[in-house]
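Protein modeling request. Please complete all fields; requests missing the sequence field cannot be processed.
Requester role: graduate student
Desired output: 3D structure, token encoding
Chains: 1
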Amino acid sequence: MLFKVKITPLKSRPNFKIILAFACFILSFQNSFSQDKTIDVALNNIIAEKNENKKVDLYLDLYIRKPYDNPALLIEMGKKLLSLSQKTNDIAMQAGANSMLGHGFRFLGNSVKGLKYHQTAVDLARENGNVVLVAFSKNQMAHVYKDRGENKQALELYLSAKALAEKGKNQQVLIYVNMNLGYIYLNMEQFDAALTCTQKAYELSLKINSKIRNGSLLVLGLIHTKLGNLQLAYAYCKMAVKDEIERGNKRWLIPAYTGLAEYFKKANQVDSCLIYSKKAIGLVKNTPFFYLSIGPAKMIADIYKKSNCDSTLKYLEIYQNANDSLFSKKNNEQMQSMTFDDNMHQIELARGKKEQEEEQKHQIQFALIAIGIVVLLFLYLLLSRSFITSTQLIEFFGVMALLIVFEFLNLILHPFLENITNHTPILMLLALVCIAGMLIPLHHKLEKWATNKLVKKNKEVRLANAKKTIETLKEEEASGEEK
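Delivered output (483 residues):
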């Protein structure tokens, strides 16, 4: 028996490449959906967290872990977080959202838009009062000036961020700030300060097992390159490159390759310098990080200047285009205007804060004077042996003293209470009720003691007056008998 076998024509069979491509698309879509879902859950958890410090820690963890090399994702996260925080009137996370947006636009090379969001983030963080959040917001804002080589402005912000991070005892933010300070000091050729700050960042990153040690490694490599310690420079730069390749982070691999190229330039190894400079520029292609090609393009153009005219022009053009993306005349004017406005805003804030502190000092002084007057009158009434005092007067001065002492404590403790309650009215009210709850029993005890003291004093005064009257009568009676 013969069996007929139907053979499908080749062109009617399913195309394996199409199936594979479709499967890859489905998988990538699922991964993207899964990532978006994970981020949405994380953002909702941040908003739902009631403890301010834990909220900021969750925010920093998400910020650092998820989108640091992805401007589009960073901006998308910023928009989602801003929407959620505005619905709940969460000032802290409104600041965090603006910081994300600013950093995302900075990554895209839009320094003007980035600075605008960062200024808003710093203002909102300051309004919220969480020192760690203010420190991180200032650190992120300083990056815009660092990218543009405006070292003085960046240094002021980083130093302020460092002081706040130390006050808040947040080691993760301290790693960032010290690392960035090291880079700024390097640009300003203050090598000792650069080495101290960067070494501190590296040691902290090892202590808490942070994944961002690569930035410190790169800056250490650049510092030792400048100092001529070429063996150390090479070791640090290679470690930075290795870390970024393992992490698969293009954004930070570009400057790592550029740092290694700078080492080879310093070591007069021209071929190796060209290799790593071109690797850095190759990574820039098809990414939003075009401005990061400024350094490597300039090195290649300088090398080719004497030998290869066509290549010199090619890389000079890359350098010029990248440079213009950050330093166009329009950008410079907008940045100068925004920086000036921000400086004036900071001056006004500092002046307002100083005036507020002076006013608080005056109020405390007035409260102390009032307490002093009431206490003196109180003591006079208790200790005076010349006249009888009513208990109602003691009660009146007791209540007055209680109110003045309460107001005095409120003036002193108000800034502290604002910090620990994050300006939450219900928590402020509960704190003041607790203070009043401690003062009232003390007031009752003091009033009871004063009343007993007063009754005893009044009896003594009456007894003394009675004795005096009897003696007077006896004297008059005696004088009458003699007559």
